[in-house]
Amino acid sequence: MESKSQSRFPLGRQSSLAPEKDGVSDDSVTAGHGVDEGIDSGLRLMYMTNDGDLEGMEELLDSGTSVNYKDIDGRTALHIAACQGYADVVDFLLKNGAHVDAMDRWGSTGTYCVALWRGTEVAVKKLGEELFTDEDKVKAFGDELALLQKIRHPNVVQFLGAVTQSSPMMIITEYLPKGDLRAFLKRKGALKPITAVKFALDIARGINYLHEHKPEAIIHRDLEPENILRDDSGLLKVADFGLSKLMKFTKTVKEDRPLARQEDSWRYVAPEVLKHEEYDTKVDVFSFALILQEVSSSNS
Length: 300
Fold this sequence. Notes:
Number of domains: 3
Keywords: ANK repeat, ATP-binding, Kinase, Nucleotide-binding, Transferase
Family: Belongs to the protein kinase superfamily. TKL Ser/Thr protein kinase family.
Largest sheet: 4 strands, antiparallel
CATH superfamily of the largest domain: Transferase(Phosphotransferase) domain 1
Distance between the termini: 31 Å
Region (Disordered): 1-35
Organism: Solanum tuberosum (Potato)
ANK repeats: 73-105
């Protein structure tokens, strides 16, 4: 039976977005000396993941340990495996039901990581192997690249490049170390009115730029706090164009098929999208209004 109290997994920098000296240092625990049987089974899973111990991990999962156990920082075994570069461990965890985009308190997920590109830290979005065999995902990836190459605005995340000729395919964008708006609101609670207004204007400027884009307007369609990131100065930037649509020859568009989304993000989707009706840029205004409500309240 796992303890209800959360502990911190202390071995090194096990989140790609964690500050270098955040949490407990490596000196406090030495890897490779076994795991204390008295700790949570979930935390033992994280130690074994760090060591690449697939046999031990399998035993723990067979005994009922949750593959999606989170420590006090929100990290899961998948975060650790991804940061360590253990492809076989990542594959094992995914096959056992690990949530692909579980987010830790720094905003890192299993499919996003930080890398160095020409001496600069950048954010890398990795796409799964199945992309090569899924025509819909190949098309979505191409559409996202086509969009990103057109966009230049202070309140929109800057696209830098892509890896398209090898696996995994990747999208490279500017790195925003302050995480997303959702995490910020949870951490800070109620904002001062002047800060709430600033945030609202940042988001509005980014979305307005997309809607006024020439020759075709861009509908984001996936606007939610998790897709609004903060830079070092606190400026908000609209991110993640995986569901975006170009309004090419008509003033409205319609879905070819139902959207697949995370369960907790449906609340930001406008009714006409949910009903598979024609829609326009106003669907982003609907999402913006809900975000504005959260920014101006303490219930985020």
